[in-house]
């Protein structure tokens, strides 16, 4: 007999589609906003350093 460990039970809640969209949007914004801010200000910082 093979033990299935922690994956033997099913989760007891369902995510609605708007909840998934909200979570993915927040996740994307937390990664893309700082990167976009850095890229937006990169040229200004290069000009200032010369």
From TrEMBL:
Q: Name one Pfam family in it.
A: COX8
What's the chief localization of this chain?
mitochondrion
- The protein's name in its UniProt record: Uncharacterized protein
The record describes its membrane topology as: Single-pass membrane protein
Family membership, please give it. Belongs to the cytochrome c oxidase VIII family.
State the InterPro entries in the record: Cyt_c_oxidase_su8, Cyt_c_oxidase_su8_sf
GO (cellular component) term, any one: mitochondrial inner membrane
**Sorted UniProt keywords:** Membrane, Mitochondrion, Mitochondrion inner membrane, Transit peptide, Transmembrane, Transmembrane helix
- What organism does this protein naturally occur in? Neogobius melanostomus
Which pathway does this polypeptide act in? Energy metabolism; oxidative phosphorylation
Q: Which SUPFAM superfamilies does the entry link to?
A: Mitochondrial cytochrome c oxidase subunit VIIIb (aka IX)
**Segments traversing the membrane:** 16-39
* Subcellular location(s) of the protein: Mitochondrion inner membrane
Gene Ontology annotations of biological process type: mitochondrial electron transport, cytochrome c to oxygen
């Amino acid at each position: 007999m093979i033990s299935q460990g922690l994956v033997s039970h099913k989760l007891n809640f369902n995510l609605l589609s708007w909840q998934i969209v909200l979570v993915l949007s927040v996740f994307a914004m937390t990664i893309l906003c700082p990167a976009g801010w850095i890229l937006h200000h990169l040229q200004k910082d290069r000009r200032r350093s010369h």
